[in-house]
User: Fold this.
Amino acid sequence: MMPELNSELKHELEQRSATIAQSKPMPPAENVLKLVEASLDDDKAENTVVVDLAGKSALADHLVIASGTSQRHVSAMADHIQRQLKAQGFKGIAVEGMAQCDWVLIDAGDVIVHLFRPEVREFYNLEKIWMLPTDTNTGDETAGVTA
Assistant:
């Protein structure tokens, strides 16, 4: 049998539960994806590709890959995405690669964004890694990939 919780512990547990209940829920992946795509469009990103990973990977629901014309352009695009996500109340955004800006990765939970300089993107070719096998019925080699 469980011993009775003392009133101080009971009060602390109630406060924690209330804090968790009041925290802002994570925005749906579709909303984050729309925000990222709009930001990249506004910033004149080149060759933007969205890979749909929903149901295919536990890593994320969407992978966004785009190119900038220079390190400065990649840096500006990454900065704008971060600012817009934070303005929407999104927390826990992880960013890697801002020091060099050849390849910047933004982990926004269910949406992962890769921003490249064109030469670096061509070298790593992430689209090919994440492409699904060819659909034998349609011959579509880019199933799940949208430009």
Notes: DSSP finds five helices and six strands in the chain.
